[in-house]
């Protein structure tokens, strides 16, 4: 440690004395009070890690003295206190660590070095699907199927739990990672083994890691590769971020929910443009915003595009820690440390300076949904019918519907129409952490049940709480029976419908949708509603609060205005309107006060790492290196280190590269990364069948993230992706162009890529604006490099995916001067030469040679943003960089 500012100080709390790095040591030179809360966390991190090399006195001064209106173009390092994984993204992280141990052995290094150096906590929450619903045994049946499907993966994770130091796994059927994070894992203020206090912070391999921002913890989603770097002690390098302040005033009006609030915030911040920026909430309205509402807002940061959406530490933070069963000693440390560092918020606290300030009046929030395809497309409840009809008219031009269809499903016969809600799911971390909206859903169900209302027979209903605490307080409130009466039985503890784990629709319903080309809807309390994500039969997806999810299950359609049309008829034949069953704020708060108590949290988390007998009964391989099974279709040793030497390969040359895909705007990581169901007739399905796996046992792409052979076959294979090289054909397809320039037939992107690999031809992807929007899917980058793509040229990138591309050795480039693939006249038949690429280059020269031999020359901006990223790129990726560092 250098400690140029003599910042190490002591802090006594109760009978114990701690040490910490005091921001007050900088007060003689800098106005610390004006620094945003989030920047104070970054600043403390620099003080604590100052070593004169990776982190210097100049870095500290640059951040402490930064003009938020005109930030210096300077990179700083940030080292998170811990790493949080969910199992979909966590499995490949552990696979890579196991592969690195093998590679370290080959390079002659010490395998024991390949261990997490900071606490790593994995929560298994993404593997459960809603195969069963609408009955009391749905939870147990879904858990049984989950364990059967994922035995290999869970055995592998148990190996990691036993064989890796600093690694913990929260077993399946416990809760959603982000809710477990805020309710149990988050420290808010961290204490290390040496008695040093510092702000809790985390990287997570799920973009909604930002949920923990709601209780004052700085954390955000990263790709698995960046998480692995953090696990192995590598700081993350980033430019000093802009901070957009949101001044909050007022309080929520009667009838408005936290979901309505966050959909409004998402729309507002998307319009402002906050990509790669921090967002920080402040102002007198914070006093009226419960911690659960704050975490809901923090959760949606990826949807509004920000790196984080953070709130300061205040009395509400302490109330939440107390409610969730944290000790009084820990709560006292949090308050004392926050006060000592100037991180404690009160309504009288001086306001920081920000890059820009927006105003959010809580009193202006109205009941809303978002959809039908993007979370930032907010729709007032009163406008949902018109929104559906507009979207439906657009669908008709592409695939005309045959109209209403009679369906016989078991003992039920009904007419299925366009707009029918076929999935109504209370799901996702966004809302299942929030007692107000969950209690609200239960009270609405209670009132509806009393009037004789029921969900429609074509609606697949499910309730997937974020933790077991939710079930306990719904029981304590006497509302679980009411939810069940409307079909909302607890079906899983995990992230389900929101990530595409919605499970199958009943076969007659699915067949009717496909045969009649119906445009049906899903209504879910999630954070993502991109095309093809929730269910492949469902073309329109609306995000809504849990009470509205129940309401739309009763109505059975999105082709309705619930503010003016009856939701159904009571048992005595009278029209019932939504306002008749909507609970008041007082009813909700009174029920919360009685039912949501600290003892529920303490008992639910008492033995959280132990798991049930199924988890405990899994056989574990006890060995320093993982015993790979060549026959496994779940876990395989990835090829990243094949042929690797201790020498750094340097900047690669990209010449005569062919276009694998020519894509438009807002291509999400859901379009790129394999996710959801595995199609039988796709490359991944054919691979599984060739290896003796029946369709019923395909499981999901997410569950098979530990097998690169399957994942690369599913990259760019989304059924809704549109490649301009194959006009009129939807899905992950392309055309192979031979050396003479002749284009072949339309084939899967994987098959085309393999033909190019056989030729030794490098590939590029051309794209429009916001390339890589969405979840922090590491396989969107891993699959890209394994297909042979050496560069992506887009108009702009989303933050996480750009970083992941660099981390896997793929060159990210942006068109400049307002140019685009369209304005330059590209159709995908060109070859591309990239010249002038050298370490630190801001631009490169690109020459596109068309099929007729003519050329188009243009400049492209190099999006390798920091010196550390250049080192990763020169090494072929971050994993190769770290392995060479450890081997040396």
From TrEMBL:
It catalyses: citrate = D-threo-isocitrate; (2S,3R)-3-hydroxybutane-1,2,3-tricarboxylate = 2-methyl-cis-aconitate + H2O. CDD domains: AcnA_IRP (cd01586), AcnA_IRP_Swivel (cd01580). Keywords: 4Fe-4S, Iron, Iron-sulfur, Lyase, Metal-binding, RNA-binding, Tricarboxylic acid cycle. Its EC number is 4.2.1.3. It is an enzyme of class 4 (lyase). Residues 686-817 form the Aconitase A/isopropylmalate dehydratase small subunit swivel domain. Belongs to the aconitase/IPM isomerase family. Catalyzes the isomerization of citrate to isocitrate via cis-aconitate. NCBIfam families: aconitase_1, PRK09277.1, PRK12881.1. This is Aconitate hydratase. It comes from Solimonas marina. The gene is acnA.
